[in-house]
Amino acid sequence: MSNISHVFYSTSNTPYQHWQCDLLEYSFNKVQQDGKLWCLCSENEHDKNFTKKRTSKYSEIVKCPDWMKVDGKLWGIANKLESMKYWLDNNPSLSGTILFLDPDMCFVKPINEKVPKGKIIGQRWNDADMANHPMFKKYCPENLKNKLNNEVVFMYPFLINVVDLKKIVNRFVEISYEIHRNEGKWEADMYGIVIAALEMGLEIETKEIGCCNNWKNQRNNDYAVVHYPGRMLNCKNENIWFKQDFTKDTLTKPWKLKVHPNETTNKIEYQLIQTITELVRIQILERNTQMLYWNNVDLRDSLQNYHAQDKYISFQPWPGGFNNIRMSLEIAAVFAFLFNRKLVLPDKYHMYLLKNKSNMGDFFDKNSFGLHCISLTDFCKLKNIPNNWKEVEKISHVYDKVFDNGYICVPEIPKEDPIFSQLIKNRIVNELCDNDHEIIHFPKNLLGSFYLNIYSKRMKEASKYVAKHIHYKEHMFAEAYGIIDELGDREYYAIHIRRNDHQYKNLFISAEKIYQHIRDIVPEKSKLYIATDCKDKSFFNVLNEKYQTSFYSDYKGSSNKYLDYNLIGMIEQLICTRAKIFIGNDLSTFSSYIYRLRGYMRDIENKEYYLNTKKCLKNIKKISIKPTWIQTWMSTWGREHPEVWDFSNFNNETIFISIAAYRDPELEKTIADCFEMAEYPERLVIGVCLQDTLEKIENFKYKDHPQIRLNTMEYTKAKGVCYARWIIQTQLTGNEKYYLQIDSHSRFSKHWDSTLIEQIHQCPTNKPILSTYPNGYNINDDSKGYLNTKTIANIGYDKWLGRHLRTSGKGVVKSDKPIPASWTAAGFLFTYMEWKNEVEFPKRILFNGEEDVLFIKSFTNGWDIYCPPTSTIYHCYNDCRKQSKVKYRPLVWEDVQIKNNMDDLLEIIDGKGDIGTFRNLEDLRVKYGVCYKKRLIEDWAKKGIVNDGSGNYSLKKFVKDKFLDSELEPKTFKINTSGLDITAKYKVWIFAIENEYGDEILRDDIYGKDYFTGKKNTYTISSSSILKKLPYNYILMPRLEDGTELPRRCLKINWIKEEIKCPRSFKLDTSEIDFNLKYEFWIFALEDENNKEILRADIYDQQFLTGKTNLYTITDKNVLKKKPYKYILCPKLSNSSETTRYEKYIEWGDQPPIKKLTFELNTSNIDFEEEYKSWIFAIENEHNEEILRHDLVNNKYFTREKKHFTIDDPKVLRKNPYQYVLWPLKKNGQFGDKKIYRIK
User: Where's the Hydroxyproline O-arabinosyltransferase-like domain (predicted)?
Assistant: First the structure.
């Protein structure tokens, strides 16, 4: 039995602790620590800018009040103390041993200490002579000081029985508060717990459970837990990582880790950075790939029919290699799943070809098994028998009839099943229908793919269970990704070549033959990863000559140096899964599992079964008969088949359809067409919120239809379409798999249901949404001519309408698969039912703003939007709005006086709304090019382009990938003026820029005399939007004052390459620094224009700290290439406190000082009698492009006390400010006149 029942920690849910909690919980799961993990989470009421709610897939979160404010000051430890009492008070049934941790701790290996009642086992406090610390001397009672010595002074982590924690908790809290109030000690609880334990008479034992990274003498030993309060230094004694500094790099995922484990100088810091590296890689995998396939929404509810009874399945794994053992585990787990039994897992033992002893938990995430599992040791204790398999067999029903080419039928052999009759040809068939035995034991006889060994009517359900719950541990995927990233995800090829320990000698072929077999599908010079057990690398010389070959041993620098050797084979399997094409070894369970894993990953396109012993063809003939293994008989372990990874097989394909209807005569026709045009109408469930007259409601044709769920409302009580859809979402949905939202005036293409399901399975992400504005139909089109329109438009952004976006179609989709899209259209949205659980409808919004909220909430909850390649839904645009003059139905805002309440959207924009935590609004800006806070739209976003980042969808027809960033550096070229007479009198040079296709993208005629007289011949393009259109040629046609036009010149642009001056110096502005103070050092960093840190170089030089110099020189050319733009300076005093943080623009010594631009605002259009919320204010260049958004909220502007505006940002000044936009927003929410003025 587990020695530890509970593991708990507390957090105040600050940005500083949020990431620490993520790391702690990840490491808890990684090492498979015993015990239930509890997170005692106090609500953060003191940082209004941090709104993330704590969520977890590893812990149970106990939401606690916030006790941080103590005597008017913030003391985070109060939350730890009070939440512990809160947890104990609200969970009276708690029992067993508790492991108590702090958030800034990280597991390296599990803890399994048994603690009897009356005892504490704690981490020895290794700082020098802690027993004589002043806090212990002052607050420890005199009668206990003889017991206080360095052997009993402990700290976190510690283990204690629940009974003893309840016994000491009140005194522990009381002493901690007393020490904090009297002494101001932040760490008062660390003294309080020791004193309370002594006072209550508990026996204290200290051990080396963990290690703090500032304990220099212990850092290279083995510990279970790493505690990281101190700074990390490299071998040069330079600061490389500190938890407080790291916080700013964790505000968005994936985190930005700027240190490699190899830069550390000791074992525990290496292990800590390695664990953080793993978690960052997992975040990348979650965001950018489908490698963590078990998160797929198709696998939901995989355990809904499993209810463990007090019966058991036990098994001895097959006595072969690891992948044979994996097969044994899968088969045994499926039996336990189908029979609702508990699974007995083997203890550690010597697995064939692996080092030392191992068990299943060393390779598989046992916490994810989903079954009730028990170890062999605990099972034998439970049954009071000696711990060995022979004794287990004595009390079990031993099932020894299974063979590697046999079938076990559960629960019985089916009668008259034609498919089963074909499956059992040449196979031994047994049935396992006797479920009465308490224990069923399999003695080393389980080998094969579970779905080829077991026949059950529930095999789809079992396949879904295996895909979801039996997978390698996450850190193995992270380890593999380190090498995958170097190779380039899906940019390389992989092959498995087995040379040793193979009983089939006919599979040993030469490297030359292997090359001949694979040459048609693996182009020469390609990157080829070779997974092999061959020690003689000369065998691969032929392949080395043809390809860029690499082996696992080539990537030692990317690998964890403390990695368990036994994991290398599994990691190589995972590396092979991400190849463009994988070629396996025949009759290899190592290769066959790679095929299955690639099948599970939705973003792997080529899932063909290639073997290195056969000619690999580009176009493989598909097997039309299902299941596919009928025609390709072999032993049940020899290969995998696509039925097991085709997620569409796993679930009932039911579709829920949401229809909000307001007095719409088209509703009944919509429902009729929906059923009529579906391929399988029986799988449809329609939820209708019907808002109409009482007579119409009573006579509704589908009122009693078994597939219609109805909510009715008299139309005078209607609150708008969003409220109606909210009712459907919260009251009418069930356990359907898919969710389709349409309007009540819609039509459908033939077999629309199957088409949408097929299309959503083509989306390469786990959480896809299909959405766009549907094509139209006319209510009088009885011939259904609208069905001739198969193509569909992708959506892009037009402009801002107040605080929400206006969007429209931006061109026909030219693809046979869904493409990344940038909008959720409320009139057609198809996704999985899980979406409605995560994205609540904005019920307060009447109409405008609905799609914005759905868009933001969907994205931040991890959903990806796609535009389908063909039209399935058609929408009637005949009403009294802009689309048509024909009005056929009433509109809610005409009947009912309702104002459009935008609070659901405005709260999100202001950071107060309830959105997801998977992504944030900055991520939305990067991917979709829109910023709601600043009301910005990137030019590329207006074309419907998505910054997808995966490489699956080319954006080059619009912009080149490198131009996707919102800002591009200005570029300069020379105008070729050879042959022009500089003494001639010119009126103008007609001047234009073209792209490579000859399209004019800029007209900017030149009137400057400096050009006419030859003093100037360079031209600079500073507009990002022009640069993104890829300037290629320039046109020059001089015109004289008498009107004569000289010959037109069309010349190619040759950009002037910028030379990097090195070294460069600038002066630090230290005018506000008090040099009478003594500084330990100055925190110092350089950032680029996008606020990205490009250099961290804290200043310890006394010349700077004492004010003797302020000249800072950069000598690293690589830093200068990144274009330093500003510097951050934060002096730190000798008492470790920090002073003011300064952020200043760099003024280079080799450039003239930065000039500020100040101008007076024209407020002639402002009514100063009004009260204003803000003035929307923006600076534009001469091409009407916004280069600065800076809304004015200072009341001094509103009262005329302030009339001027100053631009001092060099980035803005370089873009040539030309005019400004002024648009007053009144307190009542109404806008005044929008005006544009030239800057004077």
Answer: 6-278
- What gap in Å lies between CA 458 and CA 502, rounded to an integer? 35
**Strand, coil or helix: what is 456?**
coil
DSSP alpha helix (H) spans, 519-553: 541-546
Looking at domain 6-227, its CATH architecture is Alpha-Beta Complex (3.90)
Distance of CA 50 to the CA centre of its chain: 19
Phi then psi dihedrals of residue 889, to 5 deg: -150, 155
Minimal CA–CA distance to 686: which of 653, 657, 660? 657
Domain spans, the chain: 6-227, 297-469, 474-620, 655-889, 971-1052, 1064-1145, 1157-1238
State which fold the 297-469 domain adopts: Rossmann fold (3.40.50)
Taking the CA of residue 835 as centre, how many other CA atoms within 13 Å lie in the half-sphere pointing to its CB? 28
**Higher pLDDT, residue 965 or 1114:** 1114
Q: Please tell me the distance from the alpha carbon of residue 932 to that of residue 659, in angstroms, as a whole number.
A: 29
Contact 812, 912 (CB under 8 A): no
Q: Record the tokens describing residue 109, joined without a space.
A: 């290996």
> Is the previous residue joined to 627 through a cis bond, with omega within 30 degrees of 0?
yes
pLDDT at 413: 65
Cβ proximity of 656 and 730 under 8 Å: no
Q: In one letter, which amino acid is 283?
A: Q
For the domain made up of 1157-1238, the CATH class stated in words is mainly beta
What is 971-1052's CATH number? 2.60.40
CATH topology match: 6-227 vs 297-469: no
* Listed residue (351, 420, 344) closest to 387, CA to CA: 344
Burial class, 1011, CB count within 10 angstroms (exposed 0-12 / middle 13-18 / buried 19+) = buried
SS3 766: coil
What residue type is assigned to position 903 of the chain?
D
**Domain 655-889 in CATH 3.90.550.10:** yes
Cis before 346? omega within 30: no
* DSSP, residue by residue, 143-201: GGTTT--TTT-EEEEEEEEHHHHHHHHHHHHHHHHHHHHHH--TTHHHHHHHHHHHHTT
pLDDT value at 1056 more than 60? yes
CA distance 684 to 700: 19
Quote the distance between the C-alpha of residue 37 and its chain's center: 23
How far is the C-alpha of 1190 from the C-alpha of 1176, rounded, in Å? Answer: 7
Any idea what the Cα angle at residue 273 is, between residues 270 and 275, rounded to 5°? 105
Judged on CB neighbours under 10 Å (0-12, 13-18, 19+), 1194 is exposed
pLDDT band, very low/low/confident/very high, at 522 (cuts 50, 70, 90): very high
Range name among 883-892, 914-923, 1179-1188 with the lowest pLDDT average? 883-892
